[in-house]
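Sat 14:20. Reprocessing the chain from the morning session after the first attempt stalled halfway. Input below, unchanged.
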Amino acid sequence: MYFSKSNAFSLIILAIIFISGTIDLGRLFNYAEQPVPDYIDRDNTPNFNRIDNETATLGRVLFYDKRLSANNTISCGTCHIQAFAFSDTAQLSVGLDGGLTGRHAMRIVNSRFAQERRFFWDERAQSLEEQSTMPIQDHVEMGFSGTDGQPDFNDLIDKLSDIPEYQTLFDFAFGDDNITEDRIQLALGQFMRSIQSFDSRFDQGLAMTNGNVNMGFPNFSDQENRGKALYLSPPGGGPTGGAGCNGCHRAPEFDIDPASGNNGVVGVVGNPDATDLIVTRAPNLRDLVNPQGQLNGPMMHTGGFNSLRMVIDHYNDVPLNPQIDPRLRGGPNGQGQNLNLSERQKNDLEAFLRTLTGSNIYENPMYSDPFEPDGTLTLLPLATSTSERFKLEDIQVYPNPAIDQITVTGLDHKPYFLQIFDLSGRLIIGQQAYPDHPIDVSRLTSGMHVISVYANDQQLIGRSRFLKR
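Finished this time. Tokens:
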């Protein structure tokens, strides 16, 4: 699966249609049905938060909105920049009032396709949803920490609730304009999972060999095919051994093995006497460089590796530490890995790593900043308003997201008939109900649903959306 010239032309047309600073609610980007190659097996999306276009659109706005920081200067997109595969070119990112992050900003490309479901370098977040609001609540990064005189997350909710476009967008995504941390996490999680890259020369070659990664790729040079063989082969030492990269960063996803330990990089930026041994996660290896071959920012949690050769040299001769991954112990005496790669092998391996870069993520407007440079955003309404699309009367579903039961509010005291559909339009539940009485939805599958409410004379009263966890 890769992007042809016609695909690139389509992106240009999309860029013209979807003008920066404007979101047309009647013409959403198709986040929910982006093509994924057949050979990609992993997907860490929780069932309750499958991508839909309305919620991912809200997530895109939240991701780029600097009003999510306490002083309106920092957004998620400030440190995860589309032009650099959603990483940062700085060693440490600049946060609120000039403060610096403790570790380098990790690339978030293909986060959805990682077997490891935990996030941050030290894996302290149990999911991408949980991770998404932690920088917002960090006292250095975005400042809604509730400590040292900073506002807390409830202050952010109050702030967003007073912004008209968020009243519209949350209603558009969830069926009512109630703003909660849970909903913010769901929307940001959907948008970040939508950022994918499968149009590299590696993907083209894998398609040509019908998914056989071990075959020589017809579109690769001899050097690139040699580098691929080195990457895939276990380490053996000497000129005939492999590099063993695939043991931790398995093709074709190139994510990190969840069982990985420390990789031998233990530094703490700004404190040469300190060590950081708890780092065990890594970003996807796709798009290490941009389409022009330039590095998408420094690598490792220290941001101290400024070339692919530095990374290869590190793994060619890994220093030991107490938490080192067992696969990086090179011999029977437990010494650090020493691959004894030749200069030619190092060049071959670097040439292969460069084939993992695509072009789509750098130019696709669906991943881009929707705001004007002055921070303004225009929402083009639906042909019918959001309220007309979802509800004739002001009905709401509570709680939303739901677990086992929901209650429909905003109705008079007469019995009514309800129907609940999934987003494919399949009817799941149809029953009589009563205002403010709980409705059992435990048998629904996780995900977004639409509820239609009818009077007993079969007249439509209203519709709304709710998320089933």
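The mean pLDDT is 90.
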